[in-house]
């Protein structure tokens, strides 16, 4: 145990965010550095619980108390070994995960939880800085070939596990760069892309091959893929977005978040869909919406308003969401802080009824109405209709599941009741040798779940190809967050 009294003597502390007026002038990550003595104190707060609920909160089963202890003792080398034992990409989760481990931390019952995510990211950044993240090529090759379709966290985790197990792995990606939503969904100010690039360098050196700008099912047929490869992992994400069927939806300036964010991620300043000088309305109160807010503010929007149909969540755990569940709370992400500092608004319990346009077919305004809660089916409240200026609207209302295009049709995969690609407990679909991992099989989820699924699916593929496997299997496909 790091320090038997650490949780009594030190408060939870996180690094400061850079001042709003400074950080909105660039696209770099928002956090200041965290001095080493402060991190040691945070690691010291871990109680090394007999039953560490943090393990259960994390789909990867991260060995949190072990690395807290190692960081407290300044044994960084062993800390990264223990961290990498369960997580291929802690630099992604350490920056981007909403940290269900912290929601489940025992200290959180009557105090603030251990700053697990901060400790995680410091361990991996330290390891990269020291040159300890080196390629780990397979000791021997199996001669088996695996195609991974989609290069998000699920595909990358599966590819790294399978390459290290000795298979020849090719990752196909239809975009022009590798990374899935890490690359073109999540903005630079949440995670700088250099973190993806240096991990890809390691993967290339291990022998994973990457082919970009290949839309599998179109540029290469499902039959060709099956002919050329001994096994296939589908990790194409849940990219079919939910739309908003109201009058004026087809006006110019109304875009899906995933039409707005990718070009902004490619060219920060001169994206073809640009918020500069415009009144922006972001529909949807989740993480994707927050990413649109931060992007629009950095592009120089005249104003930003976020709309959410659900009522405002509570600031602290309500009795209905007890420890160790992952609570839905009112969050103040960096983008929300930038929004309120700039006079912008987060408006809850409202529904968009219509977009109004100008003579040239551009969106000009958005009409909304206040609504009752979900129990009433979001019944409109008469007399609350109003109009707000809207010259750029982004729709971030969630995703419906995988795109059921040529690839899935030609393969003949079956779907589960929610419309995701169905799989057995080895992550294999109904098609022999074709596996599925990440959002494509689970539905819209989180990076940490995608990595866990990629690792687990890799063990299924390895067993399919060789008859046995030593690869870890962190989660069943049916595992779900504790709610
Ligand atoms: C804007 C946004 C912000 C988010 N922020 C967070 C966050 O902060 N923290 C968090 O934990 N989660 C976040 N999420 C969710 C998280 O990004 C996803 O759960 C995760 O990326 C899913 O990983 P995946 O590998 O299954 O799929 P994806 O990351 O979606 O990757 C799938 C890839 O497959 C490719 N592809 C699809 N079909 C084909 C084909 N036929 N041929 C070739 N390539 C194909 C796609 O181009 C894509 O690159 C966010 C999601 C969005 C949309
Ligand atoms: S639950 Fe919290 S206090 Fe207990 S071992 Fe995990 S991180 Fe440490």
What key attributes describe this structure?
5-stranded parallel β-sheet; globular; binds iron/sulfur cluster; amino-acid biosynthesis; 13% strand; 19 helices; 34% helix; DPD_II; 483 residues; binds flavin-adenine dinucleotide; alpha/beta
Lay out the secondary structure.
Elements: H1 6-9, H2 20-23, H3 36-44, H4 53-57, H5 64-72, H6 76-84, H7 90-96, H8 100-104, H9 116-130, E1 145-149, H10 153-164, E2 168-172, H11 181-184, H12 194-206, E3 209-211, H13 222-228, E4 231-234, E5 240-241, E6 254-256, H14 257-266, E7 279-283, H15 287-299, E8 303-307, H16 334-341, E9 345-347, E10 350-357, E11 363-370, E12 386-389, E13 392-395, E14 399-401, H17 406-411, E15 434-436, H18 439-442, H19 447-466
Parallel strand pairs: 1-2, 1-4, 2-3, 4-15, 6-13, 7-8, 7-13, 8-9
Antiparallel strand pairs: 5-14, 10-11, 11-12
Helix pairs in contact: 3-5, 5-6, 5-9, 6-9, 7-9, 10-19, 14-15, 15-16
The structure holds flavin-adenine dinucleotide and iron/sulfur cluster.
The site of flavin-adenine dinucleotide (FAD) has 38 residues, from helix 10, helix 15, helix 18 and helix 19.
């Amino acid at each position: 145990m790091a320090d038997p009294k650490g949780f009594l003597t030190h408060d939870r502390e996180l690094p400061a965010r850079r001042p709003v007026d400074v950080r909105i002038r660039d696209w770099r990550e928002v956090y200041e550095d965290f001095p080493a003595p402060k991190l040691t104190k945070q690691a010291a707060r871990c109680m090394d619980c007999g039953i560490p609920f943090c393990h259960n909160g994390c789909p990867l089963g991260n060995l949190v108390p072990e690395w807290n202890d190692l960081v407290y003792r300044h044994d960084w080398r062993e800390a990264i070994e223990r961290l990498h034992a369960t997580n291929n990409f802690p630099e992604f989760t350490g920056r981007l995960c909403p940290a269900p481990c912290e929601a489940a931390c025992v200290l959180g019952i009557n105090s603030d939880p251990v700053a697990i995510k901060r400790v995680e990211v410091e361990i991996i950044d330290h390891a990269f800085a020291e040159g300890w993240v080196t390629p780990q090529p397979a000791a021997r090759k199996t001669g088996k070939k695996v195609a991974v379709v989609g290069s998000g966290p699920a595909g990358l985790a599966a590819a790294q596990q399978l390459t290290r197990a000795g298979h020849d792995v090719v990752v196909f990606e239809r975009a022009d760069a590798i990374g899935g939503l890490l690359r073109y969904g999540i903005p630079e100010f949440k995670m700088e892309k250099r973190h993806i690039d240096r991990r890809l360098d390691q993967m290339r050196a291990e022998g994973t091959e990457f082919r970009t700008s290949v839309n599998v099912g179109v540029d290469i047929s499902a039959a060709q893929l099956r002919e050329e490869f001994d096994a296939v992992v589908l990790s194409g994400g849940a990219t079919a977005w939910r739309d908003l069927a109201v009058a004026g939806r087809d006006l110019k300036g109304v875009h899906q978040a995933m039409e707005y964010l990718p070009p902004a991620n490619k060219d920060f300043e001169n994206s073809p869909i640009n918020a500069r000088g415009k009144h922006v309305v972001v529909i949807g109160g989740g993480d994707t919406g927050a990413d649109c807010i931060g992007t629009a503010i950095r592009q120089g929007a005249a104003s930003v308003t976020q709309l959410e149909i659900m009522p405002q969540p509570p600031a602290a755990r309500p009795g209905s969401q007890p420890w160790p569940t992952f609570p839905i709370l009112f969050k103040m992400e960096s983008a929300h802080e930038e929004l309120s500092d700039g006079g912008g608004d987060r408006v809850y319990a409202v529904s968009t009824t219509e977009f109004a346009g100008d003579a040239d077919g551009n969106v000009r305004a958005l009409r909304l109405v206040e609504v009752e809660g979900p129990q009433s089916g979001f019944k409109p409240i008469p007399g609350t209709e109003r109009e707000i200026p809207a010259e750029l609207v982004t729709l971030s209302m969630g995703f419906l599941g995988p795109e059921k295009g040529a690839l899935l049709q030609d393969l003949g995969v079956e779907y589960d009741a929610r419309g995701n690609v169905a799989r057995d407990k080895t992550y294999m679909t109904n098609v022999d040798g074709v596996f599925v991992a990440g959002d494509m099989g689970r539905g819209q989820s989180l990076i940490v779940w995608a990595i866990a699924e990629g690792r687990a699916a890799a063990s299924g593929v390895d067993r399919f190809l060789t008859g046995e496997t030593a690869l870890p299997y962190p989660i069943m496909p049916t595992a779900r967050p504790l709610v």
